[in-house]
Design goal:
The protein is an alpha+beta fold and 194 residues long. It has one domain: Protein Transport Mog1p, Chain A, CATH 3.40.1000. Helix content is 27%, strand content 39%. It is built from 4 helices and 11 strands; from the N terminus they run ααββββββαββββαβ. It has helices at residues 2-25, 27-33, 124-135, 182-190, and strands at residues 40-44, 51-55, 60-63, 71-77, 92-102, 105-117, 142-146, 149-156, 163-170, 173-179, 192-193. The protein has a 7-stranded antiparallel beta sheet, sandwiched between helices. A 4-stranded antiparallel beta sheet has the order 1-2-3-11. The longest helix is centred in the first third of the chain and has 24 residues, at 2-25. It is elongated.
Length: 194
């Protein structure tokens, strides 16, 4: 009987210690999630330093590149603040954006704009070129497969300081990824659920 009681206390101690370890390990994520709207969360794995952003509002999630060493900032911009981007003749019905910055600073950051469409676009490359034209931006567009996704990419050197921009279309949604690092953008696209 004494052995069972001792064993019970040992198990309870291990469970309590495990919970305390998990609670301490998640402090940075709890702080980030305080400022995010319901439906958007940063998650962190229990034992590894693996982070991901889960967006239930718009229906996607993606892993943060391990080189970022965590997440410093996440900001979600709801539809209402992006009305000025809607083109008069376009088929967009909703535009939202999320911005994520890693612990390393501005170079380790990405923004993802989401355009929800009423109808299938006539081609992703043409859609991207029309968006750039309507916004007064310039770039040379090329197509590339990344992680099983067909994407269109460009670099805007005149107005956006050389930022890399990738476009991905899936299920009447066009995702526009903006960032300084090709490697980080491609990692996020390949390791995301879009």
């Amino acid at each position: 009987m004494i052995k069972k009681i001792v064993l019970l206390f040992v198990v309870l101690g291990l469970v309590g210690g495990g919970f305390f370890y998990w609670w301490q390990n998640q402090a940075d994520v709890r702080e980030l999630n305080k400022t995010l709207p319901e439906g958007i969360r940063v998650e962190k794995s229990l034992f590894e330093e693996e982070y991901k952003v889960v967006n239930h509002i718009d229906g996607y999630e993606f892993k943060i590149p391990p080189e970022w060493k965590g997440v410093k900032e996440v900001e979600y911009v709801p539809e209402s603040e992006f009305e000025y981007l809607k083109r008069e003749k376009a088929e967009e019905v909703k535009i939202t954006a999320i911005y994520v910055e890693g612990e390393g600073g501005y170079a380790e950051s990405i923004s993802i704009d989401l355009y929800k469409l009423k109808q299938q676009p006539s081609g992703l490359k043409l859609w991207a070129q029309n968006l750039f034209q309507d916004m007064g931006l310039e770039g040379e567009f090329t197509e590339e497969d990344i992680g099983g996704f067909k994407t269109v990419k460009t670099q805007e050197n005149i107005h956006l300081g050389g930022t890399h921009i990738y476009f991905l279309e899936n299920n009447l949604k066009i995702y526009v990824f903006n960032g300084w690092s090709i490697e980080f953008i491609e990692y996020i696209i390949a390791n995301g659920k879009w």
